[in-house]
Amino acid sequence: MKLVRRTYNYFFSKDREFARRLKSLLGFTPSNLSIFKLAFFHKSTSNSSDKYVPFQNNERLEYLGDAVLGTIVAEYLFKKYPNSDEGFLTKMRSKIVKRQSLNKIADNMGLDVILSEYNNTRLSRSMLGNALEALVGAVYLECGYVKTKKYIISKVLRRYLDIHELETFDDNYKSQLLEWSQKNGKIVGYKVIAKYKFEKRDRFKVAVMVDNEKVASADDFNKKSAEQLASEKAMQILGIKYDENFALEEAYNEDEED
Question: Best exposed site among 103, 142, 175, 239 by fewest CB in 10 Å?
Answer without folding.
Answer: 239
